[in-house]
């Protein structure tokens, strides 16, 4: 009898220890061995897009292919009424920066299909625009060995859906792509784009949607989603590669920078691909590139696998 009680106590202690380990991550730092960032491959169509980059079917056309190798030439500055000062190439095409890249040190996170939708700007042949500090121009070596132009460390791209000078259709796509200002910072999207009307919001909060009820939103007021193919215990993601272009991760948020959000399991998921992702109740969180402004819920129910998130981290609108 004593032996049975001892075994029971040991089992209980082990269970409690497991619960205190953040969402099944080893010391909260990484997914368990063998996860490789995916509980299971996402089924075709689960991303809600044919290519996942907000580019549509035209992303792989001849224009995009030609843009890949086109030198920027002498850069120029376009004074946009909506975006402020925007950097363009010598032909007047807008240059963009990607939030998932880094400037210190310079590094590009856009490869493969991403680089088809967002052709990297070659470093060769690029010269500073009049009035722009030439010392801000640099280059980064991409994974394929090519040299990409940087401005103050940020890799520069064009957008395949910009088909003529003066267009900036890539502004705010996925909440991660923005036109570049002359100093490499994001061009200011006054009155448009992902940040419109969202001033003063905490890093994560909730809003009352007329159809879905109370749902979670990010600092820009954009709807936050869950992927039903992910898991929380242990924490794993099935959204990798091209999926992340359509469904960008929600970056880590400080607990004291939230309002109305469940704090249980409110931890950072250090993904195997190197990205850091916020979770609620240990569920990884995303936004949707198809949402263009605060209040949009275009990702709701996409592929039968993507749903807005309740303050408790539960998927909203899922059939029980």
**Beta-strand percentage?**
15-25%
Helix/strand structural class: alpha+beta
Overall shape? elongated
Mean pLDDT reading: 79
Helices and strands, in order, run as HHEEEEEHEEEEEEEEEHEEEE
Number of helices: 4
Protein name: Lipoprotein
Organism: Streptomyces himalayensis subsp. aureolus
Region (Disordered): 27-71, 168-207, 293-320
Biased composition (Gly residues): 45-57
Explain this structure.
The chain has 320 residues and is of the alpha+beta class. Among the domains are: 76-179, no CATH class; 204-308, no CATH class. It is built from four helices and 18 strands. It has helices at residues 2-20, 62-69, 113-117, 243-246; strands at 76-80, 84-88, 96-98, 102-103, 106-107, 137-141, 147-151, 154-155, 177-179, 204-209, 213-218, 225-227, 231-232, 235-236, 268-270, 276-280, 283-284, 306-308. The strands form eight sheets. It has a three-stranded antiparallel beta sheet, with no helix packed on it. Strands 15-16-17 form a three-stranded antiparallel beta sheet, with no helix packed on it. A two-stranded antiparallel sheet has the order 1-2. It is elongated, with a radius of gyration of 22 Å. The two termini are 42 Å apart. Residues 7-21, 26-68 and 189-199 have low confidence and may be disordered. InterPro entries: Lipoprotein_repeat, SCO0930-like. Residues 31-44 have a biased composition (Low complexity).
Summarize the structure.
This protein is α+β, with helices and mostly antiparallel strands. 11% of the residues lie in helices and 20% in strands.
What features would you highlight for this structure?
about 325 residues; alpha+beta; three-stranded antiparallel sheet; 18 strands; about 10% helix; elongated
């Amino acid at each position: 009898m004593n032996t049975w009680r001892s075994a029971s106590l040991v089992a209980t202690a082990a269970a409690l220890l497991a619960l205190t380990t953040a969402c099944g991550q080893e010391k909260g730092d990484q997914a368990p061995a063998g996860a490789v960032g995916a509980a299971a491959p996402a089924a075709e169509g689960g991303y809600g897009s044919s290519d996942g980059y907000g580019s549509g079917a035209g992303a792989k056309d001849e224009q995009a292919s030609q843009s890949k190798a086109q030198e920027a030439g002498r850069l120029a500055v376009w004074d946009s009424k909506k975006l402020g000062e925007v950097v363009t190439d010598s032909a007047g095409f807008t240059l963009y920066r990607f939030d998932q890249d880094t400037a210190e040190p310079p590094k590009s996170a856009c490869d493969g299909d991403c680089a088809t939708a967002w052709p990297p700007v070659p470093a060769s042949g690029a010269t500073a625009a009049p009035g722009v500090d030439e010392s801000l121009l640099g280059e980064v070596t991409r994974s394929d060995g090519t040299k990409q132009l940087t401005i103050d460390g940020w890799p520069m791209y064009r957008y395949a859906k910009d088909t003529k000078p003066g267009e900036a259709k890539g502004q705010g796509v996925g909440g991660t792509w923005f036109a570049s200002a002359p100093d490499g910072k994001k061009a200011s999207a006054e009155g448009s784009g992902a940040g419109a009307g969202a001033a003063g919001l905490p890093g994560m909060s909730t809003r009352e949607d007329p159809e879905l009820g109370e749902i979670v939103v990010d600092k820009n007021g954009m709807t936050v989603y869950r992927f039903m193919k992910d898991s929380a215990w242990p924490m794993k993601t099935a959204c990798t590669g091209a999926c992340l272009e359509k469904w960008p991760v929600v970056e880590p948020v400080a607990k004291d920078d939230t309002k109305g959000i469940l704090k249980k399991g409110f931890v950072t998921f250090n993904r195997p691909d190197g990205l850091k992702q916020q979770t609620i109740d240990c569920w990884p969180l995303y936004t949707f590139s198809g949402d263009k402004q605060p209040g949009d819920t275009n990702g709701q129910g996409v592929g039968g696998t993507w749903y807005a998130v309740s303050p408790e981290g539960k998927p909203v609108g899922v059939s029980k």
